[in-house]
Amino acid sequence: MTQPIQVEIRARPLARYRELLGPGFDPVLEASISARENLAGKVVWNVNSTARGGGVAEMLHAYLPYVLDSGVDTRWQVLQVTDPDFFVLTKRIHNQLHGDSGDGGPLGQAEREFYMESLADSARRFAAQVSAEDIVILHDPQTAGLIPAVSETGATVIWRCHIGIDDPNEIALGAQGLLGELVGRADGCVFSRQEYVWPGLDPDRASVIPPGIDAFTPKNQSMDVSTRDGVLGVIGLTATRPQTRPVFTRSDGSSGAVSSPATIVQEAPLPESASLVVQVSRWDRLKDHGGLLTLFTRDLKDRDSHLALVGPDSSGVDDDPEGAAVHAALLEQVDSLPEEARARVHLVSLPMEDLDENAFMVNAIQRRADVIVQKSLAEGFGLTVSEGMWKARPMVASRVGGIQDQIEDGKSGILIDRADDLPAFARAIDQLLEDPSRAREIGEAAREKVKSGLLSVQRLILHYQLIDQVSRARRQSSGP
Ligand code: UDP
After folding, report:
1. What residues flank ligand 1, with Cβ below 6 Å?
2. Is the pTM for the entire model greater than 0.85?
3. Res. 27: pLDDT tops 70
């Protein structure tokens, strides 16, 4: 059984975006002011399955503080795990919604019953806190089972799906079928791209809102080179330990310092002068770290550059039961490499005890990269892409899912048409490593692209429009 717990969110000042966005700030501010008026006396709830690790948690941390700052009462609750089989099942649904068979297990009547039973207690306890005026946004497959209980409270229910596939195959359609009846009972559904809208859903109830990043969090805040190098020294990626601990600004505005080492599998630390290729991702098969490792050690012409595969400490992401196995398989792959290749590979697991510190470590590694890769086989949106682009890094990424909505091929990054085309990834990485001025140009265009529309606060306009539209439709359908 699972029971939701509250995640603490603190307001962050929206006004800090005024200078960054220039005239683009005005519509964000206007939307926030009207939201405060329209949503007075109501609570906007968010429920998902983890407060740490992964894109949904990242996205909620990136925009809810600004919703609070607008004066809207918003709250975030997380399903509490007690039965690990529940997350084995929801990870299967996750993979299958991406069109991948995942662990190969079934999604039939027995699984649906287990899914609903596992959520029954949380659904009841969560619904008891909700009032009929409220708006409830349920994120991803783990929470869809809460829809009936929340609907009964009279609240407006929105289901937001962060996973999808452009051309759904049989596997994806099967997983949609499993949740279809539940999702059809929500007042509105949100997908990260138009192509992801499920064919069986009422199109009038479906909207598209991609997630976005916050430029000021520890993950994305600016950092000078000596701080960056200090962080890499503290975590142990490079050999030079800094004299003083590198400092950063925490999400709540207080000051933090990086002090924890990472768990790194490497023959030797990264040489200061080496070129670095990086991928940051959860340890998830669909992120295809293994493919990147293969092409890096087999197909890349550049034999001097290093590769860092970076992810959370595998015990660190609550709703992802596959992380440890994916990491173990990578370890085996690294072990089997010839010595020359192994010497250029760094498998980095970042500590997750202090999320701000973890985020600042990711930030430093992304800034140290000469090229950032996102070799995903499937991707909902891919916030790591916006994160790399914001740091003006040239990205090489698969042309899958929401990655295509971020990178304009050849301009603000390089898209590889087929995610399994390893030599094409190697060629693109080689070209960027060989041509630093082109790499710089692409990186700068990437940063501009983020500024022009990939930030979480820019999505607030769509977020408030959605709430308004869905609540209005609900009032109309339920009559006077
Ligand atoms: N991430 C992190 N620490 C890590 C590894 C990853 O904070 O050690 C973050 C990463 O920076 C990004 C998120 O996890 O913000 C992953 O989101 P994305 O949308 O790329 O993929 P998802 O995990 O949702 O599939």
Report:
1. 54-55, 58, 219, 280, 282, 311-312, 350, 358-359, 362, 380-384, 387
2. yes
3. yes
